[in-house]
Amino acid sequence: MGKANASFNPDIDLIDFQPAKFLAFRDMEVCKRVAKITKEDLCKLPKGTHSDFKAHIRPVKDFHFQLALDMLVRIKKALEEGKQFVGVFPTGPIFQYQLLADMVNALGIPLHHVHFFSMDEYADEDGRDINPEWPGSFHYTINMHFISRLDPKLRIPANQIHFPSSKNIDRYDDMILEARKDPSAKGAHIVYGGTGLSGHYSFWDPHLAKTYGMDTEAWMKATPRLVDFHPISTIQMAVTDMQGAWPFVPPKSYTTSGSTMLNADYRAWWNDGAGLTADGQYAGGIVWQKFITRLSLHGPIVPEIPCSLLRTAPGEVNIIEPVAEDLKIELTA
Q1: Which of 3, 131, 148, 214 has the maximal Cβ count within 10 Å?
Q2: Residue 195 in 3-state DSSP?
């Protein structure tokens, strides 16, 4: 278990109230304990974590290059082995995609064997699919940062690029499995992602297990579906993607789930919540992932902390260095 600093920390130790009632996880003692875990101890994971699950801290200058390189190596290995490559990919982190496209183009690596499954895509209050040409959509963002940058001769075939929607959500896990063309597989080769401010993986938020009446076992086996957002996720998207315009965050999403995560061969999380700009450079500002990274890695494995699920299977969490730095309370606005 990551060791908390035993010395008095007024930022944490003077807290003598309980978390707001709308929050799904409200154990203040656990929250205070994990908040005090230092950078030095962050990657020393607690008992109960899968032996093949690791955490790493990576410097800002290498972070998205290393993520792009990880994707490229896996894609190229499958190509050399004459196999399909099936991945579940996030829209956040984002800035590795430009690097990956440039690597693919420079090396002339065809991506005709790649099957790109997006983790999620927005929907309106009635579950209608979002306009894919809206700049806030995941379709638009992935096309701008990745697909359109690829040499047309090397691009992933259009019929192998998938986003969850009203038309396919009930079959999304099956589509992933069918793309593998491997009878021994249970899901994708890999799921890439990052930890949401609420603790979500994909858009599986901390209130959903209770909403659906799921115990821990059912939560881990939950299948892709249309979900509504926890308020924390709405605000995260508003602040990180929409310059604070919270009414423009769609109210729902078609999203992957516990089954998608745990059926994959491997899970690689890349937490870069550290004030990054659209050109991929670190500019300072809000470093918003410090607490939730610590809670998901060192708190209990429970549905109210969705990304804690990752610790039950082989995988990794890569943490950008500013997120790994010690947590401090400082009013700035």
Answers
A1: 214
A2: coil
Question: How is 122-160 classified by DSSP, letter by letter?
Answer: EE-TT-PBPPTTSTTSHHHHHHHHTGGGS-TTTSPPGGG
Over residues 26-40, mean pLDDT: 98
Rounded to the nearest 5°, which phi and psi values hold at 163?
-125, 135
Residue 243 lies in a domain: yes
User: Would the pTM count as exceeding 0.85?
Assistant: yes
Q: The domain containing residue 260 runs over which residues?
A: 57-324
Closest CA to 119 of 323, 260, 318: 260
Q: Does residue 181 sit within a domain?
A: yes
Provide the phi-psi class of 286: left if phi over 0, else alpha when psi is between -120 and 50, else beta.
beta
Count how many domains the chain has. 1
Instruction: Give domain status of residue 228, yes or no.
Output: yes
pLDDT tens for 122-172 read: 999 999 999 999 999 999 999 999 999 999 999 999 999 999 999 999 999
pLDDT mean over 95-110: 97
Answer whether residue 265 is part of any domain. Answer: yes
